[in-house]
Automatic annotation (TrEMBL):
Keywords: Membrane, Sugar transport, Transmembrane, Transmembrane helix, Transport. GO terms for molecular function: UDP-N-acetylglucosamine transmembrane transporter activity; UDP-xylose transmembrane transporter activity. The chain crosses the membrane at residues 13-31, 43-62, 77-96, 108-126, 132-152, 173-195, 297-315, 327-350, 356-375. This is UAA transporter. It comes from the Eukaryota. Signal peptide: none annotated. InterPro entries: EmrE-like, SCL35B1-4/HUT1. It comes from Cerrena zonata. GO terms for cellular component: endoplasmic reticulum membrane; Golgi membrane. It is found in: Endomembrane system. Residues 206-231 are annotated as: Disordered. Residues 206-223 have a biased composition (Polar residues).
Length: 386
């Protein structure tokens, strides 16, 4: 019995960590490949992710008999509206930043600086107080973000020298615009976090998927009402669906941009998929197969969309099983792994002193996040004692 429980526990955690690390890291790799070829495809990437996650959740949250309608929600529709606006613009801004010469390495590390924004928002809007450990950690994170930002602040320009002089100012302006876009996305992320905290405080925890209690006095295991209650999806699943589902109409305003981006991807290099030309499996000569051309960018887009669902599911699954402190630590490690893979496979885009700045900044960001989490655990322990 104990062995079965241990195996189930290990299997559950293995699945969760595989979804987080496998899904999110492969999603970052697919995204980097795609935006390196098509840096202005951010809106299309966001649309495909939102559409796929919405379609994936429809069977769970939409009832089709006697007519199509949304199932009963655990959270009213109104609290979702502000979150939907914030979530939609955050996703668009983060993906749009790639069009402004923001390397993936800087993108990863800069988004790790959301801890600073969250702390400031908590102090400004919620009146939260922080200890010295947390303040020092934020200084680390801020310094790391600044170093990393400047490590790639001067993208390489074309030769000859007179052309370089003419375009260097334009490149600096473009890069600064991308950084401002990421900064705005961080601010909106802080506001989204506050909105979600308020929603969970009012309507329940991150998960309602607790195991049913054992029946007492030989009563029946569960009534029909209890079984119905147990089948309800967790609140995080409901929230994930509605944040994407309610955002879909907003893409109507950028429909022409989406069409142009999709067409640009289709006009790029193609890969050839070999398929049998006849029903006879015995024919194995080269003329028994036909090649179907598929734009390579479409495959990267499909891979990015699928891994985005895996990544989000893994993060929310983790959130439903452990404390926010553990979630923070796991996600920081995940970002570090993504950064290392990105630099190892594709190069950092910076060399010499710039590379030293980037890695020093990365270490400060991750160190600061760990220290901040440690300071937060001390605050929680103090609250429990009181």
């Amino acid at each position: 019995m104990l062995g079965d429980i241990s195996l189930a526990f290990l299997s559950d955690w293995s699945t969760t960590l595989f979804l987080v690390f496998g899904g999110c890291c492969s999603n970052a790799l697919a995204l980097e490949q795609l935006v390196s070829l098509y840096p202005r495809s951010g809106s299309l990437i966001t649309f495909c992710q939102f559409l796929f996650i919405t379609l994936r959740g429809i069977p769970q949250f939409v009832q089709f008999t006697p007519w199509p309608r949304l199932r009963e929600r655990q959270i009213p529709i109104i609290p979702y509206l502000i979150q939907v606006l914030l979530f939609y613009f955050i996703a668009l801004l983060n993906n749009a930043a790639f069009a402004y010469k923001i390397p993936m390495t800087v993108h990863i590390i800069f988004r790790s600086g959301g801890l600073v924004i969250s702390m400031f928002m908590g102090w400004l809007l919620l009146g939260r107080r922080y200890n010295w450990t947390q303040i020092v950690a934020v200084v680390f994170v801020t310094s790391g973000v600044v170093l990393t930002t400047f490590s790639a602040s001067k993208p390489k320009t074309a030769k000859p020298a007179d052309f370089t002089a003419a375009t260097s100012g334009s490149n600096t302006y473009t890069y600064a615009t991308g950084i401002l876009i990421l900064l705005l996305a961080l601010v909106l992320s802080g506001l989204l976090g506050i909105a979600q905290d308020r929603t969970y405080a009012l309507y329940g925890s991150h998960s309602n998927s607790k195991a049913p209690s054992k029946p007492e006095n030989g009563s029946t295991p569960a009534s029909a009402e209890t079984k119905k209650e147990q089948k309800k999806p967790a609140i995080w699943q409901e929230q994930m669906f509605y944040l994407h589902f309610l955002s879909m109409p907003m893409f109507y305003s950028v429909r022409q941009d989406l069409f142009n981006q999709f067409q640009a991807l289709g006009d790029g290099p193609v890969l050839y998929l070999a398929l049998p030309a006849s029903n006879s499996l015995s024919q194995t000569s080269w003329h028994s197969y036909s090649s179907i051309p598929i734009p390579a960018a479409y495959l990267y887009l499909l891979l990015n969309t699928l891994t985005q669902l895996v990544c989000i599911s893994g993060v929310h699954r983790l959130t439903s099983r452990v404390s926010s402190l553990t979630v923070t630590l796991v996600l920081v490690v995940r970002k570090a792994v993504s950064l290392i893979i990105s630099v190892t496979l594709f190069g950092s885009g910076v060399e010499g002193n710039k590379a030293v700045m980037m890695w020093t900044g990365a270490m400060l960001v991750f160190l600061g996040t760990f220290v901040y989490s440690f300071g937060g655990s001390k605050v929680e322990a103090k609250k429990k004692q009181e």
